Fold this sequence. Notes:
The complex is a heterotrimer. By secondary structure, chain A is mostly helical. Chain A has a single domain (about 1-40, about 50-270), classed as MetI-like fold. In chain A, about 75% of the residues lie in helices and about 0% in strands. Chain A is built from 13 helices and no strands. The longest helix of chain A has about 35 residues, at about 60-95. Chain A is elongated and about 75 Å long. The longest helix of chain B has 18 residues, at about 185-200. Chain B has helices spanning about 45-55, 80-85, 110-120, 125-140, 155-165, 185-200, 215-220, 235-240, 245-255, 295-300, 335-340, and strands spanning about 5-15, 20-30, 35-40, 60-70, 75, 90-95, 175, 205-210, 220-225, 230-235, 305, 310. Chain B is globular, with a radius of gyration of 22 Å. Chain B is an alpha/beta fold. In chain B, strand 4 and strand 5 (about 75) form a beta hairpin. Among the domains of chain B are: about 1-90 and about 170-240, Rossmann fold (3-Layer(aba) Sandwich), CATH 3.40.50.300; about 100-170, no CATH class. By secondary structure, chain C is of the alpha/beta class. Chain C has one domain (about 1-355): Rossmann fold. Chain C is about 35% helix and about 20% strand. Chain C has helices spanning about 15-20, 55-60, 85-95, 110-120, 130-140, 145-150, 160-170, 190-205, 220-225, 240-245, 250-260, 300-305, 340-355, and strands at about 1-10, 30-40, 45-50, 70-75, 80, 95-100, 180, 210-215, 225-230, 235-240, 310-315, 315-320. Chain C has an 8-stranded mixed beta sheet, sandwiched between helices. In chain C, a hairpin with a 2-residue loop joins strand 9 (about 225-230) and strand 10 (about 235-240). Chains in contact: A-B, A-C, B-C. The interface between B and C is large, with 66 and 71 residues.
Amino acid sequence: MRSLRASRQGTIGLLILAVFALIAILGPFVVGEIDRAGAFASLQDPSAAHPLGTDRAGRDLVTLNVHGARVSLIVGVVASLLSMIIGSGVGIIAGYLGGRVDFALMRITDFFYVLPTLVLALVLAAILGPNLLNVIIVIGIASWPGTARVIRSQTLSVRERMFVDRARAFGSGNARIMMRQVLPNVFGLVLANTTLTIAGAIFLETTLSFLGVGPRDTYSWGRILEESFGAGALTLGRWAWFVPPGLAVVLVVLAFTMLGAAFDEILDPRLRSREAYSSGPDTGIDEAATALPGRA
Amino acid sequence: MALLEVRDLVVEFDLPGGRVRAVDGVTFDVGTAEAVGLVGESGCGKTTTALAIMRLLPENGRIAAGSVLFDGEDLVPMKRGPLRRRRWSDLSIIFQGAMNALNPVRRVGDQVAEPILLHEPSVTRKGAWRRVGELFELVGINRDRRRDYPHQFSGGMRQRVMIAMALANRPRLVIGDEPTTALDVMVQAQILELLERLRAELGLAMILITHDLSVISETCDRAVVMYAGQVAETGTVGELYRRPLHPYTERLMRSVPDIGNVRRLPAGIPGHPPSLVRPPSGCRFHPRCDHAMEVCRRTFPAERTFDPGHRVACHAVGDDGRTRAPSELPLLPSARALADLDPRREMPTLLDGAGAALVGVDGEIEGITAEGRP
Amino acid sequence: MIELRGLRVAFARRRSFGEVVRGLLAPSVRAVDGVDLELRRGEIVALVGESGSGKTTTGRAIVRLGPISAGQILMEGRDVTAIRGVDLRAYRRRVQIIFQDPYESLDPRRSVTDQVAEPLIVQGIGNRAERRERVDRALEEAGLRPVALYRDRYPHELSGGQRQRVAIASAMVLEPDVLVADEPVSMLDVSLRSGILRVMMDLREQRGIGILFITHDLSLAWLIADRIAVMYLGRIVEVGPAEILVRDPRHPYTKALLSVMPSPDPARRRKRAILRGETPDPSLIPAGCRFHTRCPLVFDRCRAEDPPDFELGEGRRSACWLAEGGEPLPDFPAEAPRLASASAHHASAKMTADAASAEPSLVEPDRRP
Lengths: 296, 374, 369
């Protein structure tokens, strides 16, 4: 993890997320609950009392955005967790067991993969109802195939490694090998993949909310956007209403993406090269040469 | 004056762990049409030396001191232009794992022709192609195979292609970095025989880099034994075999199985080649040496020459050119402990470069670490 | 104790487009093509061969890591070729393997103790305390002393030699009867090899295990093995006690291998019988004696008939028509001069090129409908 700090992208991303996480966790305590409709005068301009103004129903926008942070982040994280668990499970099992199991699982994955995400989400949202839990489930279902594919291909290469052979040699069963040999060695990739999935999930939730099928029981950034556009904020030039949530989504998604890219750098095969000071193979590669970045 | 003279070469690398001197004061000569072997185990700096001679060090490496005189001219301070002209037409190199260095999507003939076209602008494509044909024959490949792709060749054949490429501009010196590793024993013999033949026919000088002592004994005239970035001993292969002066050379010679001789498991050398980030003080071999004395821990031994051209850097070698036996020397406790060490036992080495801590027979840590701490 | 009878392992290679179009069936790569071998208690048998010989495939088949197409593996008389489930697990407890690459054979993310203990956990042996003790003992036996220094280290903190010892410990912790060692020292520095070899020889002395030592290095085999079995293209062409085989080889391939072994003594530059060309592709094994295309002593019968294993007494066998009479091999015929002149080198170059590309009597890919 120290290597994360070495990457400038990673550091910036982490910082941004830290800020938003803080807002999401502590914010609601600072600003209090979301105001009920009519608490303040509607469509006020930004002022000292309301730094972002109020919406059409007279709710303070700062409060809304702070709560929105919490909702959007929760949706993003939980949905991706769901997708990661399903996706990794399928990916590892299919990749390791191969044969008919792999075939069957991959065809199912393909099926979900090619379904247009948005359409799927819309349909599921319409069927299951637009509350927070359902939206999370919907996003989870839509995202897992991507993870499954990536994990599967990583599993395929881990499967060939010698220490897996060794485990088979002393009698480890498939289940055990998948848990103890394969999983820990694809975990890094899972993590990197998850950060990107979270970004996607947040974005997807925002889109769904914007289209009106997002969670109706709480306020997310997407919902703020939806309402602002519905009230014609764009034409009215009410920047304070729609810019903050939009910007927030962009920043968070960007931050996760940067984090994902940083993970990518870290997980580069460079890192998998032998540590510099061990007695090397008899190909006679000099220690110093081996330790150089970019050399096998 | 020899064809190639390497004098006090020092090569440094910038690594995340610190600055490392991979090569620390290496000196040797290569005469015209002479084959010199650079032998040593992992981390001794032999490949780095070769790369330094060719001025092909990677980004974070540099020649910090010393000179490399080719035909009297120092290659170290040379600018890019004159250097490129020298490269390949005077000196060429066959890289380690070369057989995998071929571009898989280009015909081998084109790849071998490339250095010709690059360095000799007067040669036409046709002329280059013809030359490639000659080169292929020289190295034992059918001319018609110029149009083939690398994957159509076996490992041994690809190595021949690499040799052809190295000879493309008729160099006077060829460096072969582990040219036969990863090849089958029979193919290895073929390649070595090829190199010998080429040396005789073309009057080539060669530097053969390998960890395999027997290969050097078979094909080279002289050898340079390297350890941890420095030269331990230099001499003819005959001298090194019959009269190795440096304890490391002697142990190394004995580690190699020799069919037909006594069938006994060699003693090996306890411990491991050291990290070069914080190498042992004084003579770098001293933590593993059963001849080690106090002076070995303090100062690096000066190189001395004994007839005929036999050079060694070791405190245990007397002025009469005889290496004193351990019993005649005031040994360090660590050296004495080595004699009692169970040969099956692993000598623990802390990999952060602190050198070797010796462990006594009953598991207690005794002896001295490289820094002199008990 | 372990016996291989007529072991065969064949893989089907993917057909090239041309082969598909021509209606040819996938050529099978006969990696192991009829191997008979015995390994007795307390014995070290070296399986020597170059690439394509099938030695690694044989080793893996013995520990049931690789497929077996035909033939039998017998353990103390019992056929274990096709056992599964509980029986297989019990078999695995008795037959273990060490791999060539000390870097790859350990899981980079788990500590030494974890990895050495795992076989015990998988096999359900002992409770935590007992396991701990057995792990410590295994590490000590492998030469990693004091154990405390190594127990909690991770592979990247160890040197190659140390990692290989951990691998040995994890194989020995189950106290197997048979150990298959697949090139255990070829990736280690020369000065470090003896340590590992000594450990293995001590295991043989003290525990009476049988070791199948797979290597491409005949001189290493000579040093450590009681018996040597030489493989070529999937078949054992000669087997016998190490010293005797080296002094008096009864198969031309063995004789050729011996003659090209480099020696550290520069004065001993013997006449090397360097075979032309390379080992043929295992999917195109020559008809008749599989070695005939490169054999310096080839004659007509060799091209037509594949020789059986001839028993030569003293536990020696050779698959060569010349060995039939029980006589030592004749000398190899004189070859083209080593340092060829310009004209001669054209000739030898042609020989090399031809031998490398053309195979006189080949087995055509199967045309079965």
